[in-house]
Amino acid sequence: MPISNCPFDVTTSTGHLKLRLEHQLTADHWQPTPSHPHPSYLWAPERRQVLECTMISPLLVLAIGTCLTNSLVPEKEKDPKYWRDQAQQTLKNALRLQNLNTNVAKNVIMFLGDGMGVSTVTAARILKGQLHHSPGEETRLEMDKFPYVALSKTYNTNAQVPDSAGTATAYLCGVKANEGTVGVSAATQRTQCNTTQGNEVTSILRWAKDAGKSVGIVTTTRVNHATPSAAYAHSADRDWYSDNEMPPEALSQGCKDIAYQLMHNIKDIEVIMGGGRKYMFPKNRTDVEYDMDEKARGTRLDGLNLIDIWKSFKPRHKHSHYIWNRTELLALDPHMVDYLLGLFEPGDMQYELNRNNVTDPSLSEMVKTAIKILNKNPKGFFLLVEGGRIDHGHHEGKAKQALHEAVEMDRAIEQAGTMTSVEDTLTVVTADHSHVFTFGGYTPRGNSIFGLAPMVSDTDKKPFTAILYGNGPGYKVVGGERENVSMVDYAHNNYQAQSAVPLRHETHGGEDVAVFAKGPMAHLLHGVHEQNYIPHVMAYAACIGANRDHCASASSSGSPSPGPLPLLLALLPLGILF
Ligand SMILES: [Zn+2]
Fold first, then answer.
1. Which terminus of the chain is more solvent-facing, meaning fewer CB atoms within 10 Å of its CB: N or C?
2. Using one digit for the tens of pLDDT, what is the confidence trace for 152-173?
3. Cα(325)–Cα(330) distance, rounded to whole angstroms?
4. Quick one: pLDDT at residue 554?
């Protein structure tokens, strides 16, 4: 343990301390490149102090430590008044929450950070602050500003550590399900087409549509990926992206692929944006953007062009637009768009750090256009927004990619917040599951989130990064020993953080994830809940779905305030199907 008041062990040998200083200075000397635009997040005052400290005799170890440690504390934080005033203001805000917002939620926006466990939220917060040249820890994400927070138990009916399909069924359809299945109850077994029929469960997107609201799906993955697909599809296997990925048995039993279901199950989804072009076109059709890439070609065995089918379902007097690049998106006048289908990549969209600013919109840009289109409906809207590649970054062990995805989703949350009001819009931010991602090592205040712990291992005598994975592809042994990270560029966009167990793909984590909520009825997300509780709250708040008995008094009084007790009593157990 470090000695008191020190974020790291200043009594450690001079060599260890010097090692840390050298690493930070080395990190500073990297020059920005397209693949590595943020060479250092080291906080400027600390950097100065580090330089000063290095001038001092290495024999004065304690003095160096004190010098370094003091320099890490922002001046205002040394005054107790700063902390007392801040806490008192927070208390005032908390007391104001006693006046519950029991309005009807005209709009519901759900932000789903795929794989965004609590450790990812904290690390993304620090990153966001450091991108703005702050130490980072004190930064507030947009989701941090939401007044209500709950924990969500993420397990699938057949899995302690869940996947994104079973969880999507829980937080969109209100029913827990088996891993790998979407939009079906736990009576459906993965890959078993013949266990699908009769076990379909519908989602809050459908309930909103049935209530006359506009609905939208925005994701950075394929639009037929696990998370969005539970909003509209019923599939025994999340991997049935098109008929090309389905076993002959499932096809012969009449099961339909997920892309097909996107276009046919709910024909009037107003906004669909993400990746996944190739699943919409006949087999071997050349892609519009990557004409030389065979993997980008159409996949459909049935020869259908689902874009044409999508267009054919739209009324002639309505304005429907299919687009495939950012330029087209930004050129749209959302007031003149009734239906939008934007497919910006053949598969998943690019990572935010790798994004092409001509062809690929950011998540916040997609959200901005989506809300402008959906907002036109006087009955309101439901919008599902997925930051889908946080998960992919983690699976690849590329924490920097994952965290920049999370920061971009937070920007999208901010964007939505500027376009909506808590008076009539319920916004929920959560994750489907966590990852075995962690950061630690007694790092000092303001340490680059991608930086090193301030000491070397007391066992193998090598430095280590603060960020580590429990398992994954970053496991590296060189000459029979753990790799020395000081020999590699551990701040590179694609650096794979070290893991304890070698796996080609890092795994999900099984602990609870956070649920952040603001707007009407947000207070109903308040404790430790099963994940499938979430859409029941969203539907209740919006007076959609089955549980609407409280809504009559709400609409007749003009202000839907039946009081908290009747509201909670009304939340009786619901059936599987709405
Ligand atoms: Zn995953």
1. N
2. 999 999 999 999 999 999 999 9
3. 9
4. 62
* Beta-bridge partner residues of 272: 217, 341
Give the span between the Cα atoms of 333 and 321, in whole angstroms.
11
Conformational region of residue 56, where left means phi above 0, alpha means psi within -120 to 50, and beta covers everything else: beta
245 half-sphere exposure, CB direction, 13 A CA radius: 21
Contact 265, 229 (CB under 8 A): no
Report CA Rg, the chain: 25
> Which neighbouring-strand residues pair with 214?
381
149 SS3 class: strand
Nearest to 115 by CA among 525, 513, 517: 513
Look at residue 576 in the predicted model and tell me its pLDDT. Answer: 36
Ligand 1 centroid from CA 211, angstroms: 32
Tell me how far the alpha carbon of residue 438 lies from the centroid of ligand 1, in angstroms.
16
- Residues with Cβ within 8 Å of 398's Cβ and at least 6 positions away in sequence, in order, are 493, 494, 495, 496, 497
- Asked whether the beta carbons of 199 and 188 are under 8 A apart, the reply is yes
DSSP secondary-structure letter at 244? G
At residue 285, the pLDDT reads: 98
Q: How many helices (H) and strands (E) does the chain have?
A: 18, 19
Q: Which of 71, 119, 164, 214 is catalytic?
A: 164
Q: Report the pLDDT value the prediction gives residue 71, as an integer from 0 to 100.
A: 76
What proportion of the chain, given as a percentage, has pLDDT over 90?
A: 82
How would DSSP label each residue in 394-419? HHTT-HHHHHHHHHHHHHHHHHHHHH
> What would the pLDDT profile of 9-22 be if each residue is shown by its tens digit?
333 333 333 334 33
Q: How far is the CA of 129 from the centre of ligand 1 (A)?
A: 26
What pLDDT score does 64 carry?
A: 43
Q: Note whether 200 and 578 are within 8 A (CB).
A: no
The pLDDT assigned to 69 comes to 58
Instruction: Please give the DSSP secondary-structure letter assigned to residue 142.
Output: T
Q: Which token pair is 365?
A: 């840009």
Within 8 A by CB and 6+ apart from 308, the residues are none
Whole-number Cα distances in Å, 66 to 5, 31, 60, 137, 440: 10, 30, 10, 21, 21
Q: Do residues 172 and 230 make contact, with C-beta atoms less than 8 angstroms apart?
A: yes
What is the CA(178)–ligand 1 centre distance, in A?
15
* pLDDT at res. 362: 98
What predicted TM-score, i.e. pTM, was given to this entire model?
0.86
Q: Verify whether residue 164 is a known catalytic residue.
A: yes
Q: Could you write out the DSSP letters of every residue in 363-391?
A: HHHHHHHHHHHHTT-TT-EEEEEEETTHH
Is there a contact between 222 and 276 (Cβ–Cβ < 8 Å)? yes
